[in-house]
Design goal:
Layout (H helix, E strand, L loop, with lengths): L3 E6 L17 E3 L2 E4 L2 E4 L6 H10 L9 E3 L3 H13 L4 E6 L7 H10 L6 E6 L4 H16 L4 H12 L3 E6 L3 H5 L5 H9 L2 E7 L5 E8 L1 H16 L7 E7 L2 H14 L8 E2 L2 H4 L6 E8 L17
Parallel strand pairs: 1-2, 1-6, 6-7, 11-12
Antiparallel strand pairs: 3-4, 3-5, 8-9, 8-13, 9-10, 11-13
Helix pairs in contact: 2-3, 4-5, 8-9
Length: 307
């Protein structure tokens, strides 16, 4: 039986998630954040709470924007070498969406040079934050249970086709500063207090699903959408958690969901600073992962591209 190592990019927020997941020994490949003249390795020397607090209070944020950088080549190949040294025959690496940067392609290209030494599957999760990390967690649980890589990849493909990330940017400032909202849309958006409800489309791009007047109405609509997605599914067959950057909008979201009768069943997980630096400190929303039931068979659609 093949021995399989699971890896994940730091944007998967595994290190910000409950400690019970740490015992799965998922290898983290760290993306870097550049901010205020310093370079940080996400999850290692950058505290997300302090980071978002600083973004919220920094003077002249337009000229002090954080930026990100892909993992160093040596960090990636070092993870490969470590897996080989520990006796693993295969590795499954789950990365943030390729639409959000070049990390997926860099890891995939470097993996090509190792094909004679270890079989590496590089998966573009088409998402980020704990949705990405939870896919890695499930892969690690499957591997621990003795599942082979072919079956693991099918299970992950099933989950990816149903995964949901949805949130509200309470202020448009960082979307405008980062060039994701431009020109007339930016001007009208700020003037009319429009808050986009954002989500990941099937291509892994984070785009506006709807535009709603005022943050509170946008959060209420987000709750409605999540309730529609869940339908009559039992809570034991999905996980729902809060995604957030700063705390202010999160508290409002919790107040609204209580009135709507919506309940999360997993701890809150703060948003990855690598992802959050583009949205700013005023985002709140949900991650939703469906768990396959015995009466839900895998199909031909549950396959991933060759990596």
């Amino acid at each position: 039986m093949s021995k399989i190592k699971i890896m994940c990019t730091s944007t998967g927020c595994i290190e910000y998630a409950p400690e019970r997941y740490h015992s799965l020994w998922i290898e983290i490949i760290r993306i870097h954040v550049l901010f205020n003249g310093k370079e940080y390795r996400e999850g290692l020397d950058l505290d997300p709470v302090a980071f978002y607090q600083e973004l919220e209070t920094i003077e002249d944020p337009k000229n002090h924007l954080p930026s990100t950088a892909m993992p160093d080549t040596e960090e990636i190949t070092g993870a490969f070498e470590k897996a080989i040294g520990e006796g693993f025959d295969e590795a499954i690496i789950l990365t943030l969406s390729s639409a959000l940067g070049g990390t997926f392609n860099k890891i995939r290209l470097l993996a090509e040079g190792y094909r004679e030494r270890i079989k590496i599957h590089v998966i573009d999760t088409k998402t980020t934050c704990f949705g990405e990390g939870f896919l890695a967690i499930k892969a690690a649980e499957f591997a621990k249970a003795g599942m082979d890589s072919e079956q693991i990849l099918k299970e992950i493909a099933w989950m990816m086709r149903r995964q949901v990330f949805i949130g509200v940017d309470g202020k448009l400032d960082y979307l405008i500063y980062n060039g994701r909202l431009k020109g007339g849309k930016a001007f009208m958006g700020k003037m009319l207090s429009i808050c986009p409800v954002v989500h990941f489309n099937p291509e892994g791009e984070i785009v506006a699903l709807e535009s709603v007047r005022t943050p509170r109405k946008a959060l209420a609509r987000t709750c409605e959408i999540i309730r529609e997605k869940i339908g009559d599914r039992s809570p034991e067959d999905y996980l729902l958690w809060h995604v957030y950057t700063g705390p202010s909008l999160l508290e409002t979201l919790k107040e609204i969901e209580e009135k709507q009768g919506l309940h999360t069943n997993h701890e809150d997980v703060i948003m990855s600073p690598v992802s959050g630096c583009h949205n700013g400190p005023w985002l709140a929303g949900y991650g939703l992962a469906f768990l396959r039931r015995a009466d839900e068979p895998l199909s031909a659609a549950d396959t991933l591209p060759d990596s």
